[in-house]
Design goal:
8 helices, homotetramer, globular, Rossmann fold, 282 residues, four-stranded antiparallel β-sheet, 2 domains, seven-stranded mixed β-sheet
């Protein structure tokens, strides 16, 4: 579609009087026009959060930069400012399991995602040919000495100017050093309803405990495995007739859907993180 | 709880530049502080909708009245202004089926609803004793000549200064004249996923068609039966083993939950109606 | 309704050739007629499970007793045989929180449950008057020396010939000794999606972790708190605007619905327990 | 996996005494062993339905054929007998919209479906190259004189010995003549919660009516458009911020999931059709 480009700002910081008025007043003063605005105050932490989207009146890059200065300097808020036309580069990490791999690529191709799938990184070769069929650059980085392994991944990330890494059932743990070095958010999909069944083989754990629902959780990866801020979760019903392969099959649909929604929310600039939790403006 | 009273305004009208800024600027100028604000623009109809809630700095009644004047005269918006401490009177209409009757009363007693259940009106006597047990005034208005029947109901509504009527599986159709005369919103619960299975015996219709989900719909009653603006809907899964009594039993839970959520959203001043649709700020 | 009484048998034991044939052949040989039959084999444990319901041709009590002997002696299965007209006595344990209390009582009154609510036991007096209004015997058993406290509860259970205890947000832990002594199943409702957030204050735990769904779990109580076999679970979506009182309010609806379904499934003789898991024939 | 092959029988017909016993007795007499069995009796229509799956003791083809004769001649039931190793040929019809196309193909490749995707038929050329990439034979049958158009499709179906046609958002109506001629089931996915919003542009209809949930329905195609027996349905929540492109995007996920489940249930021999409804043994 030919929708006009808008500016999107995500702001947060200590609450102070008149924030909504000052932000909207600034926009009005440019002769610009607010399309959406949503604010939230955490009543315990006394933190103010806002997502605001507007059609600029003048030169869009200048107005975005100017707003960022206003928000950080004058309002003393933490601000992230983006254009609706931005298409940040995304790297997809995968091992051998391919359902999230195909699903994510097809959604980028279908235009569901406000980003560009720049490259695929894998510790296995199995999906190289599939990636090629889709016309996406594939890097095989086999497991080796850990430092070299991560250094190689880092070179790829930097070469492609990647702004988001998504782990599509990637079976390696990213070290704290690596997460610091890449300096961009990393979204992981875990195949359980966290915090239940963290760690390995969650469908086996679920089967063993006899739960009646299985889940999937998309979260930002942090140095604490499966402990990062949760972005999105969903569940589906199982019954006593379902054996573990049934859980795995049902879980694939959950994982694809939960993973895709988390990526989309992130690329649409709808997520703020604080206190290891997320505010999702949906 | 002892939360401080806030002012809640629901506004809508043709979009115009600077609305968010002017509304938030007005509140800031009073020295008041916005707690929540949510706005929506219908991109087709070019109508602006806003729900805004703030802690007043001065005398609450005066500030609310003053804002209403500002919104209607200066901004030329349609405005509804309420206090979070308001407890408008609610009349519950019921026939013999009692699950929504009990559920609604218990929710009012549990403090889930920002309103006061003022009276119960029924065309049958069956629930008189139950109403008495709950300590709520019960009016038996038997079906009679239609004009007299509605006139009697109208006298009760007016006597109790009712601001909302809720139809808890009330099996009589309210005439267009009556709806005009009561001059307050009426929320009905229909036991299907409208527009599927409008009219009578929806569970029988659903069983006959062989659908795999049954639903319930809460909507504002209008002169067109089952055609009013939809507030809330939900569904539940059924299977081939379920006979009609199973559908009725499963449906009761749906009806209670959907009806309650619609009443609560209305009493929390979260619903705007336009073009026979609702905007629900949840 | 006037449905004819049926016999319901729940069987389980090591799998062996011809079980379905021998069971259905026995019934056919009586001239009786199977209404429903569902069987399940655990492919790992090699255990056979069956729920079978039939219309007897002759004297129902004799046929039920005769079948039980056939199943246990000839087939060497563990068997539970009941009549669809049975209405086992149920004791409801409650403390002060009353939403599951009201909901459960109203469902018994509405005929949703194949049982009889015989008495209410509470460690508080608060709900005595409400119980009386419903016409149900209420026992106040205040916390005291633990042995005496449980002995008093046990006397009540035995006096009423109770066959099922349901814990409607009962805030005391039942000891292993008590569970042995009552010798009947006990169903508990826990306000989280177990195994996540076991223990106290699960809604606070959920809020703190930042999950996007909250849940409720009905399970059989065992000596290991929150570790018993899970009967039913469900979840509902929450968002960043929801504070703990919202979680509690939304959770009430979940708890009522999950608790009620577990009780109904149990009373309809649809649950078999093995390996700390349930087989639910729904 | 290396699971042993089983025989699956779907039976239905007028209820008669001893059916379960006679069927299970027959299997026991062969020395074979029942793995699953599920039966259902429609209490209104007095029709008996059964799905039964067993491990044969002897030669599997002979035992299957022998059972079919027993079921039809001796029991006078309508019977469909299959082997769990059967992989019937499936034809996928598609136009230009490609989400169900990709999703269905990937599921066949992932081994989720007990069938073989034999060919793709389209009235457009757009997906020819994609089909080739997947290595599946693609037929472009452009719209022409209606008789010739359907004759050409029929030749393809017959050439590939197709046993199931699936319409993955195929935008042409199949004539009654064509449905008779192909003589195999046809599964369609409709993008609404039928019977609501039958016909064209259901997401536009849903948006216009202001419903709070959108749905998808998989059904067997019949000569009456959108009126065939429903196999599976699901819904997802929408809100006032969602414009029609949002409904279309959310709907794609629903359509893929509902369509895939219907195809899988059919290929697993879990569906019986009668009175324009389905019995789904899941």
């Amino acid at each position: 579609m030919n929708e006009p480009t808008t500016i999107i700002a995500l702001l947060y910081g200590p609450d102070q009087p008149g924030l909504v008025s000052r932000v909207s007043g600034w926009i009005y003063a440019q002769g610009s026009s607010i399309v959406h605005a949503d604010q939230h105050e955490d009543p315990e932490a006394k933190i103010f959060f806002q997502r605001i989207e507007w059609s600029p009146s003048g030169k869009i890059q200048e107005e975005a930069a100017s707003f960022e200065e206003f928000a950080t300097v004058d309002l003393k808020m933490t601000a992230r400012v983006a254009l609706s036309s931005d298409r940040p580069k995304v790297a997809l990490f995968v091992s051998k399991i391919d359902h999230c791999f195909h699903d994510t690529i097809l959604r980028f191709r279908a235009g569901e995602m406000s980003g560009e799938l720049a490259c695929i990184v894998s510790n296995h070769k199995e999906l190289a040919q599939e990636a090629e069929r889709y016309g996406i650059k594939f890097y095989h980085v086999p497991i080796s000495d850990s430092a070299e392994f991560e250094a190689e991944q880092l070179r790829i990330i930097q070469k492609h100017n990647v702004k988001l890494i998504v782990l599509a059932r990637y079976m390696q743990i990213l070290s704290s050093n690596f997460l610091d070095a890449v300096d961009c958010p990393v979204i992981n999909i875990h195949h359980s309803f966290l915090p239940a069944f963290a760690g390995g083989k969650p469908y086996h754990q679920a089967h063993c405990r006899g739960v009646k629902l299985i889940g999937a959780t998309a979260h930002y990866a942090t140095a604490d495995l499966d402990e990062g801020p949760i972005i999105h979760q969903d569940v589906t019903r199982i019954n006593h007739r379902n054996v573990i392969p049934d859980l795995i099959r049902k879980g694939r649909d959950l994982e694809k859907s939960v993973f895709a929604q988390a990526i989309r929310l992130h690329l649409d600039n709808r997520i703020l993180v604080y206190n290891n939790k997320t505010v999702v403006f949906d």
